[in-house]
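Regression check, S-adenosyl-L-homocysteine case 504:
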Amino acid sequence: MNKGKVYLIGAGPGDPELLTLKGKRCLGEADVIVGDYLADKRILKFAKPDAEYIYVGKKVGCHTMKQHEISELLAEKGREGKIVARLKGGDPFVFGRGGEEIEVLRRAGVAFEEIPGVTSAIAALAYAGIPVTHRGVAASFTVITGHEDPTKDKSSIHWDKLACGSDTLIFLMSVGHTELIASQLMKYGRSPDTPAAFVRWGTRPYQETYTTTLENAAKDVVEKGIEPPAVFVVGNVVKLREEMRWFDNRPLFGKRIIITRSRTQASRLANALEERSACCIEIPTISIEAPSDDYAGMDDGIEHLDEYNWLIFTSQNGVNYFFNRLFEKGKDLRSVGHLKLAAIGPATAKELKKYGLNNDCVPKQYKAEDLVEEMRPLVKAGDKILIPRAKVARSVLPEGLESMGCDVNVVEAYTTHPDKGGKEKLLEILENKKVDIVTFTSSSTVYNFMDQLDGRTELLKGVQLACIGPITADSCRKYHLEPDVVSDVYTIDGLVDAIEKGVH
Ligand code: SAH
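Current build output:
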């Protein structure tokens, strides 16, 4: 039996977290993903890494693929036995032509499911602080296509009934027709001073909201250069925005922030910033790879673990590379059972916790100097200490411990390499002044970032620099750049808090 199936998935209006749980699951099962212009690419992280991605995006004026060709493509992939995720912006059945695709699939005998999505008609307004109904203000709302030419003879929109028949009127695909829409509504009795608004790219960090009145809406489109995609809303609910705004008045809203961490580590910082409405651009400056000595040092440490008293980690990567290697060698957690464990900070301690291991020493501040002090009462001369960590790292920790008479063995757990893959993009966005903040989470991100600028530090004029702590900040100063934000809690959350408080 053919197992092919097409899921028509409502991808939501943009904020990736507005994808439904069912949509996420089906996307994760798909062999083929057929994506739209309005379906936000960030949700592709839920797809299988080897899934085929086909972009069939449609944008006013430049159709990549005709509707019937898209429907045929879905049917063909389904017939081949593939699981297909057809991602559509918002909800597939709200002006999404989901029904047309289903008709073709049904005729082709291909199984399908429709997974509703959060429509931009409601969500874009919600993110602008405009509820579609509100007690005492609006008891009804209507969603209307603005794509239809309202003057055409056989308009299927009953303007005479619509104008005053629903409290909140929400038009999609309407920007180019605002004048005609507004004049029809006023002609049939809607007051010219009715509040109205455009919400463009709703729910995304670059959302734009323009409030106006029915009378002035068309003029504003021209004067303010409002372009699709936008939702046009008419009704008294628009006034509620003043008190109900929440998304676009946060300090980080719309701030374009570069993340310089390695690709594997970028998402935690990016997610935390995006949760606060920032717009993140990932330009990894380092990549994390296996140790350059082909695990020789680490294998030796692992082989002789029974001789050690302490195992100290200075990064999450160190923890993961160490335990992966331990398990690869056929050992398990019993090999570290006799050891005391220390982590340089809470993120490293949390990583240990994932292996079910408690930590015997986390310093109050998260620097090597503090860890040395914290360890002082806990170790005695002659203690043997293993530190699996990055190849290039400061010597404060081993030297501090050695000065207490400990026998310290630093082994290479991983190496960091400069990643220059994003250099062109970086220079382009800096040249075009499309960056507000650059974040640095370690000295090596600073060095490798600066390296990519080829000495053109003037490109950073007007760009704020945010560092995770004083050591990273000092690394910036080596380039005669004074950081604007230096976190005094040396964690990702601490950095995000400091950026939120410190940006201007
Ligand atoms: N199925 C989609 C609508 C498709 S029609 C949904 O349910 O949201 C395309 C129109 O939707 C655009 O012209 C615009 O009016 C609106 N739209 C889609 N996403 C939007 C967004 N993030 N912000 C504002 N308008 C959006």
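Comparison notes: The mean pLDDT is 93. Residues 5-118 form a domain with the Cobalt-precorrin-4 Transmethylase; domain 1 fold (CATH 3.40.1010.10). No diff flagged against the previous build.
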